[in-house]
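Quick note —
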Amino acid sequence: MEGDGGEAKLTEVAAWRDSRLFTGAERIALEYAERMTITGEKIDDAFFGRLRQHYTEAQIVELTAAIALENFRSKFNPALGVEAQGFCMLPRR
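Predicted structure written out below.
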């Protein structure tokens, strides 16, 4: 991720809406992840239309699977006492 602001993006991902580091495609993917994760959020046809402006159908399926897998892990691992492996634990600055 060198050269693409990867580390900087990781530190700002929680504030992606206010950050200037994210592209339009990254912003819609982050919004999609939030909508999939937050109970009660809707993913309607209009939103899918916005996704299709940046991603192919195959890419949307892959993105959906990746988000669903992370949501699964966020519930499964703590229940079994599996600790974070460090990636999600950003250094404090």
